[in-house]
Amino acid sequence: CEILSSLPLQMSLYFNVYFFPFWWLITVAILFLKYPVLSDYYKFILVTIMILVSLTELIRLYLGYVGNLLEKVPELAGFWLLTLLPQLPIILFLLFNEGLKIHSLERAVHIIFAAFLSFQAAAAFFTLRRMVNTLAARFRLTEFHRLQEQRPVPGAPSLATGS
């Protein structure tokens, strides 16, 4: 029974759980300060992004913990997809869009968060690949042993010969 969980991924998830509230507070505080000088569509975009990131991050971290620690492929795949699709592009948008009037502290926390997401996407991919390959090999071995048990042994009496 080989352990398939990834220690680097788990450590990254652990630190991300503590970093996310810090990131959220810094981002909301700076959004509150720069809100009056933003254009209307950037105001709408930033509020929508904060709501989306907050909800997605809670689900993403839960799926990462369950998928990695309990070695569950669907949960880890969900974590990987939530990392790649909504989270990483949103953080990159917040990091590189100059129309948002990015503050230096905000840029720093976005860089750290983007580094977490990038590392977790890569680590989850390799962990997921290892889990799927191992589970597929276990399935093939189980099927092989089941077929071996069903095959008649040469020289043994069988029902077809009437012995």
Describe the protein's architecture and organization.
By secondary structure, the protein is mostly helical. It has one domain. Helix content is 79%, strand content 0%. It is built from 4 helices and no strands. The radius of gyration is 25 Å and the shape is elongated. The model has no long low-confidence stretch (mean pLDDT 92).
Lay out the secondary structure.
Elements: H1 7-34, H2 40-69, H3 73-96, H4 104-150
Helix pairs in contact: 1-2, 1-4, 2-3, 3-4
List its salient traits.
163 residues; mainly alpha; 4 helices; 79% helix; elongated
Condensed summary:
Belongs to the TMEM17 family. The protein is mainly alpha-helical. Helices cover 79% and strands 0% of the residues.
Based on Cα principal axes, name the global outline.
Answer: elongated
What multimeric state do the chains show? single chain
Q: Compute the gyration radius: what is it?
A: 25 Å
Count of the separate structural domains = 1
What is the makeup of the main sheet? none
Distance, first to last CA: 42 Å
Residue stretches low in confidence (pLDDT < 50, at least 5 long) are: none
Rounded mean pLDDT is 92
How many helices? The count is 4
Q: Structural class of the secondary elements?
A: mainly alpha
Helical fraction equals over 70%
- Compressed to H and E, one letter per element, the order equals HHHH
Q: How big a fraction of the residues is strand?
A: under 5%
Report the count of strand segments. Answer: 0
Keywords: Cell membrane, Cell projection, Cilium, Cilium biogenesis/degradation, Membrane, Transmembrane, Transmembrane helix
InterPro entries: Uncharacterised_TM-17
Subunit structure: Part of the tectonic-like complex (also named B9 complex).
Organism: Elachura formosa (spotted wren-babbler)
